[in-house]
Q: What sequence folds into this?
C-alpha cells in the first residue's frame, strides 16, 4: 500500500455562515499517523471543521495545510484526503466492486486496473467475497467496510470520517470502532473522526480535540483529557466528574474518587438525594450544604459495607491529589 502519511495543520481556521461563526480561529496540529477525534456537542463546529479540511466548504479565514502544502484553494480530489460519510452514501444501483472503484473511474483509470485495485481493497476489509452484491444485500457493518474501502481506494494521506458509527446499532458500533482503529493502524495514515460520543472518542483516539462553540477547549490523549480536564466544560462533557467550587475556584473531582467518610473521619456534610444501582457500581447523588450537587460512584461491595439511602446525611471526602483546578 503506497499510502503516504502526512501531517495536517489548521492555522487559525475560521468558518462564518453569514452572522454565525461556526468555527472560530481553530489551530491544531495532527501529526501523520494519528487517530484524531473531534469531540463535542451538536452545533459546536466539528462537521464544519471536517468539511473545510475535505474541501467541501470554503474556508472563511486561516489555512489548512496538508504535508507542506496549503490546500485552501484545491478541490477535494486534489487534497489527498478522502471522506467517509455517516450514511456511507453507497450507490444503490452499483455493485460493491463498482462502488469501491467509482472514484478511480472518475479519475480515468482503466476498467481492468480499477477493478483489480477495488478487489485488493475489498480483500483488505474482508469483503472479497461480496464484490458482486448490491449495497442493499449487505448488513450495516458490511456496508461500512465497503464505504471504508471506497474511501481508501484513492490512497488518501488523511481519511476524514463524519459520525461514521452513528447508523449502527450499539453492539455493531463497538465492533466496528475496533475495526476502524485496526485499519487506521494498518494503513498508517491519520484518521480524523467527528463524534459527539465521549465514549467513542476515548475508545479510538490517540488525540482527542474537545470543541465547544466553535473553539477548541482542550487537546490531549484520552487519559489526559479525562483525568485532567482543563475547563468546567470539558469536565462536564467528558462525564464522570464533579465540578466543585471552593475558595472562589472550581475543581474537578472524579466521581469514583469521592468516598463516603466513616463516622469520626473528616469530610464535608452532604445529604443523599438519590441512590442508583448500576450493577458493578452504585451511584450516590448528594447535595452539599452550600448547594453543590455531587455524585459518588462506589464499587458495589464498598456501598454494601455501609449502605445509605435518600434522605441520609453523610460525610464526603476525597484526596487532595484527586482535585484538579479548572480554568475560570
Ligand atoms: P457540529 O458538527 O459540531 O454539529 P456544525 O459544524 O454542523 O456543528 O455547525 C456549527 C454551527 O454552524 C451551528 O450553529 C450550525 O447551525 C451552523 N451551520 C452549519 N452548517 C451551516 C450552513 N450550511 N449554513 C448556516 N449555518 C450552518
A:
Amino acid at each position: 500500500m503506497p499510502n503516504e502519511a502526512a501531517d495536517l495543520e489548521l492555522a487559525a481556521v475560521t468558518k462564518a455562515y453569514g452572522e454565525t461563526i461556526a468555527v472560530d480561529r481553530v489551530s491544531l496540529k495532527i501529526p501523520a499517523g494519528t487517530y484524531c477525534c473531534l469531540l463535542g456537542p451538536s452545533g459546536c463546529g466539528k462537521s464544519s471543521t471536517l468539511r473545510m479540511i475535505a474541501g467541501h466548504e470554503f474556508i472563511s479565514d486561516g489555512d489548512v495545510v496538508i504535508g507542506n502544502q496549503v490546500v485552501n484553494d484545491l478541490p477535494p480530489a486534489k487534497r489527498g484526503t478522502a471522506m467517509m460519510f455517516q450514511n456511507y452514501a453507497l450507490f444503490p444501483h452499483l455493485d460493491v466492486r463498482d462502488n469501491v472503484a467509482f472514484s478511480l473511474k472518475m479519475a480515468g483509470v482503466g476498467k481492468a486496473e480499477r477493478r483489480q485495485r477495488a478487489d485488493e481493497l475489498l480483500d483488505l476489509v474482508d469483503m472479497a467475497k461480496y464484490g458482486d452484491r448490491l449495497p442493499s444485500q449487505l448488513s450495516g457493518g458490511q456496508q461500512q467496510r465497503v464505504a471504508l474501502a471506497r474511501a481508501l481506494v484513492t490512497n488518501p494521506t488523511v481519511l476524514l470520517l463524519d459520525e461514521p458509527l452513528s447508523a449502527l446499532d450499539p453492539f455493531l458500533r463497538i465492533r466496528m470502532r475496533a475495526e476502524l482503529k485496526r485499519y487506521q493502524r494498518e494503513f498508517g495514515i491519520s484518521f480524523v473522526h467527528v463524534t459527539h460520543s465521549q465514549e467513542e472518542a476515548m475508545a479510538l483516539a490517540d488525540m482527542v480535540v474537545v470543541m465547544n462553540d466553535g473553539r477548541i477547549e482542550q487537546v490531549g490523549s484520552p487519559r489526559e483529557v479525562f483525568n485532567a480536564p482543563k475547563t468546567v466544560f470539558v469536565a462536564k462533557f467528558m462525564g464522570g466528574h464533579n465540578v466543585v467550587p471552593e475558595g472562589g475556584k472550581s475543581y474537578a473531582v472524579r466521581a469514583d474518587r469521592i468516598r463516603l467518610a466513616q463516622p469520626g473521619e473528616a469530610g464535608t456534610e452532604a445529604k443523599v438525594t438519590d441512590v442508583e444501582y448500576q450493577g458493578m457500581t452504585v451511584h450516590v447523588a448528594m447535595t452539599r450544604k452550600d448547594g453543590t450537587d455531587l455524585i459518588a460512584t462506589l464499587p458495589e461491595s464498598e456501598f454494601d459495607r455501609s449502605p445509605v439511602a435518600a434522605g441520609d446525611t453523610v460525610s464526603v471526602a476525597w484526596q487532595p491529589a484527586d482535585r484538579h483546578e479548572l480554568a475560570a
In short: The longest helix spans residues 170-187. The chain has a mean pLDDT of 93. The first strand starts at residue 8 and ends at 17. Residues 17, 20, 22, 40, 42-48 surround adenosine-5'-diphosphate (CB under 6 Å).
